[in-house]
Amino acid sequence: MKNIVDQFKHLGTSTISDALDKLDISGQCFGIHSNSLQWQIAGRAFTVKYGPVDVQKGTVGDFIDDVKPRDIIVIDNQGRLDCTVWGDIMTGVAKRKEIAGTVIDGACRDTNRILELDYPVFSAGRYMRTGKDRVQVDAIGEAISIVGVRVRFGDIVVGDADGVVVIPKEYENKVLAVADKIEAAEKQIREAVEKGMSLKEARGRFHYHHLQTKGE
User: What is the pTM of this model?
Assistant: First the structure.
């Protein structure tokens, strides 16, 4: 049987989002976008929290040495867009370590290098100004916030062209089961329409309008 992370990788964020809605779980990261429409990632969160630089300046990226292959680095820079916390050096190291991707509530830079190496970065924006001497790492492995969504170390993170969703680890099996049912129903609708059934009838037969409804 496939690892649960791999099973999520084969589901779109739209389907997972509907499953989260049905289970009344807030996991959609509004405003976090892929820097390439081709990327689709899934992995366990390695959480990093940034804050304003202290009088005695702290570090900005050394944590990457501790990230395991296939994990996703999730960075809380409090939505800050006036300086970056991710660039070409971090991208090169992450690619060599086979890290699955990076999600940033903030900005990245050196986007051409990111695309050249085909390393998935999802961020709130892109901006060239360095974060050195402006921000520093305050915490690693703790619960963080990505645009108001709580992300804990080890939660499953999925990203694609439509954005990023976070699945709390204690609900991952339940979310996967609901998402699989939604995916199957939508497949049945598409197949029925392709065979000539009206969209209204197909949606009614396979309960389209209630797929994401809470408690149903």
Answer: 0.92
